[in-house]
Predict the 3D structure of the following.
Amino acid sequence: MGEGVLVAIITGVLSLTGTIITVMVGMSKANKNIEITQAVTNEKIDQLKEEVKKHNDFGQRIPIIELKVSNLEQKVEAIEHGNN
């Protein structure tokens, strides 16, 4: 084998090794970023779920409050008409 071919093979192997290492490190960093982003997204979703639960509870209580207000209005009207 010629000296030039041997140098080319060694250069190719080292270049390939460097490329593989660079790609693996890049993929590792990208995976970490994805995990962090996913964790943040999951936390935001959990917070939104809690807000929706609170909102739904409030929505369920409104008709009860409206009924109580209506009853109080009727009592006030009855008192006003009874006193006048």
Summary: Helices lie at 3-83. Residues 3-83 form the longest helix (81 residues). The radius of gyration is 36 Å. The chain has a mean pLDDT of 92.
